[in-house]
Amino acid sequence: MNEPADTKVWLVPADGRRWRFDPGSVSLAFGYTGDFGHGVEEWESLRGASDLDAWLSERFGPMSAASDSEVLCSAKQLRAAMTSAARAAAVGRPLDAGDVDTINDWASRPALHPHLPGGTTAPTPPTPAQLLATIAHDGVRSLSGARGTIRECTAEDCRLIFLDTSRPQNRRWCSMGRCGGRAKARTHYARHTH
Ligand SMILES: [Zn+2]
To answer: Are 30 and 143 in contact (CB under 8 A)?
Structure first.
């Protein structure tokens, strides 16, 4: 079987201190390669096809082909549909039918094949398109509630979106160290000043 892909991403806020955010699913992690639909051009990290290949192979291992500008363009269409759908899901809005169509279309294409070690032939490394289909599969599972609930960080000034895969379904923060810790400090401060 293939190992589950790493779901963590590096984020660089305005103060420049980058931190590791775990959005809980590889399709949401893929969403964070761009501006997640907020319209901030500087947050784009897939500026060329080689950026896409670097991101994919970092998470899924070696590939059998390189992306071209066409693959990059369709990857960004999948990403836009995924982030738009995730933002809707996080606030309980119905998903846009066009976004759903885009994700379903990708999910219907050949994805990573499961592989049992111990045979006489090595698995063929996947193409970038197969990995995008794999990301779309994850998107379907994440958005359909099969693996948890898509939520927005509870901190008012944060709005990061993640898949809550915790057993009690009670993850409230993008990260305990970042927003969770600040909220605790505020509660503590309020309790001691009133
Ligand atoms: Zn947060």
So the answer is: no
Tell me the one-letter amino acid at 105: D
* Nearest partner of 147 among 169, 125, 126, 114, judged by Cα: 169
Say which amino acid occupies 41: E
* Residue 40 near residue 11, CB atoms below 8 Å: no
161 alpha carbon – ligand 1 mean position (Å): 8
Give whole-number Cα distances, 94 to 9, 84, 91, 106, 122, in Å.
27, 11, 9, 20, 43
**Domains of the chain and any CATH numbers:** 9-193 (1.10.3300.10)
CA 121–ligand 1 middle distance (angstroms): 46
- Decide if 34 contacts 45 (C-beta within 8 A): yes
Residue 21 binned pLDDT confidence (cut-offs 50, 70, 90): very high
117 C-alpha to center of ligand 1: Å? 40
Contact 88/150 with Cβ under 8 angstroms? no
- The 10s digit of each residue's pLDDT in 69-125 is 999 999 999 999 999 999 999 999 999 999 999 999 999 999 999 889 999 998 899
Classify residue 43 as exposed, middle or buried by CB count within 10 Å of its CB (0-12, 13-18, 19+).
middle
